Amino acid sequence: MKRINQLSQCAVLLAWAFSPATLSAQQTAPVTITVLERGSGKPIPCRVHLKDAAGKPVRAPDLPFFRDHFVCPGNVRLELPLGNYTCEIERGPEYSLATGALQIRERTESEWGFQLHRLANLAGEGWWSGELHVHRPVQDIELLMAAEDLHVAPVITWWNNRNLWATNRPPEKLRVGFGENRFYEVMGGEDEREGGALLYFNLKQPLPITPAQREYPSPMQFLAQARKHAGVWVDIEKPFWWDVPTWLASGQADSIGLANNHMCRDQMYVSEAWGKPRDAQRLPPPRGNGLWTQEIYYHILNCGLRIPPSAGSASGVLPNPVGYNRVYVYLGKKLDYGKWWEGLRAGRSFVSNGPLLRCRANGQLPGSVFSARKGKEIKIEIKAALTTRDPISWLEIVKNGRIEHRIPFEEWKRTGKLGHLKFNESGWFLVRAIADTPNTFRFASTAPFYVEIGDSKRRVSRTSAQFFLDWVRERKQRVKLDDPSQRAEVLVHHEKAEAFWADLVSKANAD
After folding, report:
1. Which is it for the CA torsion 268, 271, 272, 274, positive or negative?
2. 44 vs 36: CA distance, rounded Å
3. Global pTM value
4. Four-point Cα dihedral 88, 238, 328, 142, nearest 10
5. Rounded to an integer, what distance in angstroms lies between the CA atom of residue 72 and that of residue 76?
6. pLDDT of 350-388, one tens digit each?
């Protein structure tokens, strides 16, 4: 007997009778789950969170599974023990969420049909999604990307003492395009040790980090090696890692993880692990770590450093789906892999793990620079489009590290406008929206817009420069190496950074 029940865009109501307590847990029934795109009626790749009555995730044979979910091409056949189940189905933030309670009573075959509908089409608007921290198997990546509607995803295949290519020959093509507009590459790497983690992309072979110890040699040694290769991209994986001031001072990093893997779909990692800890009384959990991440990023911008925000989920290591944290880059109608990275470097982007926040200022994209002669005032009008499945109370304009305007969500809905900013001196601003989710830090943030007025093209805050100077001095004291020559070799990089930040403090042109 076959039963089919089409689902609404946001909820699934499946009327199955409860299993009698006397039924054996070994009794099973065949179940086919089909997920269709509303409108086209075609099967659509998606992510499935299917759990039994005890909350244990259900695996699907021969499909990629991680922690609490599997992905499928739009249909899957399962043999399930009789009992009660819950189900959530997603396809990234641009699609609706389907949920339901499933109760299997009989050992007869059943088919259950789900529908997802598109809430927004960012690629159609010129915004192309990607993420920079994927630890999943290369053979699964195409279905994983399709299931999350993700367009760019370099895969990390070497990481400290783990190197997939130590026993496997790399493919001739390190970069793969599939479907109409999806790309991944297979030589991504991560150097994660005492000072934190740097991510490497677009290399042709791994860096020789396998023998590295926790503190020696310095990550700067491998960073210098990577920079010898044209086209390499270096991402600071989180802003609060201890070596961040040293990496920033080198000028060798290309992006920094504003939406990072401490932010998970169903939880928040509330500490900074082995990074620089925040004041937890001032910034309490669960949001505290996310706000601390943003505060540090604002200090970076206040120092006149223009480094775009990035995003990464660490799926395969931490409990996230691929693409949970993602960065959207504006390219227009066509996705080109090389131009995606160029757009990210230019900051024509926003990061998100939920809300989809597309902003323009005076009609210009994030990353734009507004210029004027000394003594002139710049007036900027900001407009936004926002799509969200989560409740949001406010949209916020952050100017030079402080909230300048907080616009109620309902007020923004009436006009689509966020108001005006005025600048009489150089600075920067961005727009963010933080969702009202109780268990994690779910948000969106544009990359910065910049303002240059007069000869002082960049605003440099003495407070922010001192923040990093104090930080690098604290980091120096944490270097624990018994070998004097090794200690001296590592410290030289922190000492160069200390000189950089001390010089920036002396040259600061703002408080």
Report:
1. negative
2. 5
3. 0.94
4. -60
5. 7
6. 999 999 999 999 999 999 999 999 999 999 999 999 999
